[in-house]
Task: inverse folding
């Protein structure tokens, strides 16, 4: 190739690309570890609310470098409104730093729907108590539907899988995703979130403005883990109530999780997750700690998942090659 060109991959080009939970989890793990070891770069997410509050529109961008696969990534997102997935658009561009050439421009919905549950699974693996056997999943949106199979792939000892959701399509898809990978497992649908949270070893909140009481860390039993996937369904006191607090990125907690601050413009965390995963920081101080983990998307996890999906799609003959610079 003598001229710079992108492989342009649409949402439909990527929709049927098969990639297992184990493959995604491994890619995300490598991304975090490369960052923890200083081989990658990940500036804080830039987010800009738009002036018309009635539509609750927001735009943000992320830039990062994955030292493991020597690839640079730019991600952009725009959403108009809170409830409409039809008005959410996100893309990622990849550049090969070994050749200095552009590689792919692609829809990022499938990437986010894969790397987010992989991050959740890795947080659960590292931070849940060793004998954890039950999980409550709250939310059935695009990123939440893969969470239970990803958790089971990482923690096969989970025997009780509880699910709370309000959208019929999301509930059906959540059941289907688990059955696809673990047909022998069953989901227990729950209606009382506080009661279920008190019974679960791990609680994952990925709901928007859902019809349930906002989740509190204080509901957890000793040793419990609450993972907030940038969820509006988590009470703003959840971080302050925790015995130990983790964030995927302290900087991004200040951007996308500012409601968890202490009233003086700051939010206390005890460790960043990449350091926990790399063994550079503890996952908790005590087996009895109620742990709160704030999960915000980091492009160092988008890049390896996007790279893997793009390669599979290109090998299958999907997408188009576009030369923007000729």
Result:
């Amino acid at each position: 190739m003598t001229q710079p060109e992108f492989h342009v991959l649409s949402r439909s080009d990527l929709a049927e690309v098969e990639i297992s939970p184990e493959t995604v989890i491994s890619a995300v793990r490598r991304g975090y570890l490369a960052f923890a070891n200083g081989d990658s770069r990940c500036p804080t997410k830039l987010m800009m609310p738009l002036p018309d509050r009635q539509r609750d529109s927001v735009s943000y961008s992320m830039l990062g470098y994955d030292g493991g696969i020597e690839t640079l990534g730019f991600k952009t997102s725009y959403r108009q409104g809170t409830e409409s997935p039809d008005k959410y658009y996100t893309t990622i561009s990849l550049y090969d730093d070994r050749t200095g050439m552009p590689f792919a421009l692609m829809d990022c919905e499938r990437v986010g729907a894969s790397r987010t549950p992989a991050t959740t699974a890795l947080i659960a693996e590292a931070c849940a108590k060793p004998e954890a056997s039950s999980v409550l999943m709250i939310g059935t949106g695009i990123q939440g539907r893969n969470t239970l199979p990803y958790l089971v792939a990482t923690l096969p000892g989970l025997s009780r899988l509880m699910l709370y959701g309000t959208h019929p399509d999301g509930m059906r898809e959540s059941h289907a995703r688990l059955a696809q990978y673990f047909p022998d497992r069953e989901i227990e649908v729950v209606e009382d979130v506080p009661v279920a949270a008190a019974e679960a070893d791990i609680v994952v909140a990925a709901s928007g403005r859902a019809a349930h009481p906002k989740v509190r860390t204080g509901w957890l039993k000793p040793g419990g883990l609450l993972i907030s996937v940038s969820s509006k369904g988590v009470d703003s006191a959840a971080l302050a109530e925790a015995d130990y607090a983790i964030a995927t990125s302290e900087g991004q907690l200040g951007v996308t999780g500012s409601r968890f601050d202490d009233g003086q413009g700051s939010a206390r965390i005890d460790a960043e997750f990449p350091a926990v995963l790399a063994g550079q920081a503890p996952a908790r101080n005590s087996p009895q700690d109620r742990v709160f983990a704030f999960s915000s998307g980091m492009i160092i996890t988008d890049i390896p998942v996007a790279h893997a999906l793009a390669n599979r799609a290109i090998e299958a003959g999907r997408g188009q090659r576009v030369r923007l610079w000729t």
